[in-house]
């Protein structure tokens, strides 16, 4: 009996995946550099969400329609970071896209920097909204989606939110509104890393079953491994084909992804990293890519 080899993806697709993986590694490396500048930061979340941000922001390969040199371009897709403490990862993604200079990342959290430790739209090019108190991002996404539709603007709205934001009633009010208005131009991306400031998510407030809940609210729901770039691309392809209402991409991620000794660290919501560990983390990240 003749054996059949597994079918490999077409070369262009495989090459794009390779480029996106490289972009995710650069985002992780940049986040570690910024973390070392301040000696602190939400580095675990940054490492965990890097694959998602690479898929959206990698220059020439990302999902978003944007002009890096003109972050206020009216035709751009809007990407809302309502989890403001993820800014350390988002700045790395903006540098990857070419919106801010790579060298500027070393000013992270410093006086007069355009890169404060929590995301602020008035400071940073490409930052659509100010983050902070959780639960307001999806409401803004709903309003933006309605406004763009009324204006006949085909731009899409993406809102990256955390599983902790699903504890907030305002998130579900916005979910109902998006479904009511059949906003096919709105996509929520939920980073499900299973950890909140007060402990593991199931112990703080149980939110599962997430797919069933979003579908009950009228959303097209897709769940993927958020650290698997081909799975992320497949999920976005499925969402792109759904135009009758809002969609949500539920992404299971691992805090500290790419740096094994950080992946298993306790108290990882605001992860303590010793001075000597930053370079060790970068070395481990580079070794994982070889």
TrEMBL record:
Keywords: Thiamine pyrophosphate. Residues 27-285 form the Transketolase N-terminal domain. Its cofactor is thiamine diphosphate. It comes from the Bacteria. One of its GO terms (molecular function) is magnesium ion binding. Belongs to the transketolase family. This is Transketolase. It comes from Amycolatopsis acidicola.
């Amino acid at each position: 009996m003749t054996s059949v080899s597994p079918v490999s993806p077409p070369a262009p697709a495989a090459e794009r995946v390779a480029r996106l993986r490289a972009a995710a590694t650069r985002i992780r490396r940049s986040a570690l550099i910024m973390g070392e500048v301040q000696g602190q930061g939400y580095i675990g979340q940054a490492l965990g969400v890097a694959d998602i941000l690479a898929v959206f922001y990698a220059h020439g390969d990302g999902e978003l329609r944007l002009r890096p040199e003109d972050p206020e371009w009216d035709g751009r897709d809007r990407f809302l970071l309502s989890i403001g403490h993820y800014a350390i990862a988002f700045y790395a993604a903006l540098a990857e896209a070419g919106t801010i200079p790579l060298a500027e990342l070393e000013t992270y959290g410093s006086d007069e920097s355009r890169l404060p430790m929590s995301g602020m739209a008035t400071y940073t090019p490409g930052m659509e909204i100010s983050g902070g108190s959780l639960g307001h991002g999806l409401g803004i996404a709903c309003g933006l989606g309605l406004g763009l539709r009324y204006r006949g603007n085909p731009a899409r709205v993406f809102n990256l939110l955390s599983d902790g934001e699903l504890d907030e009633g305002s998130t579900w009010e916005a979910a109902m509104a998006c479904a009511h208005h059949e906003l096919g131009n709105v996509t929520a991306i939920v980073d499900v890393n299973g950890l909140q400031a007060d402990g593991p998510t199931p112990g703080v407030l149980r939110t599962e079953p997430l797919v069933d809940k979003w579908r009950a609210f009228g959303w097209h729901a897709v769940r993927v491994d958020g650290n698997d770039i081909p799975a992320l691309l497949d999920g976005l392809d499925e969402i792109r084909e759904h135009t009758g209402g809002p969609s949500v991409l539920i992404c299971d991620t691992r805090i500290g992804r790419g740096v094994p000794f950080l992946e298993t660290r306790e108290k990882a919501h605001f992860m303590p990293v010793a001075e000597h560990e930053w370079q060790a983390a970068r070395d481990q990240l580079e070794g994982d890519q070889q």
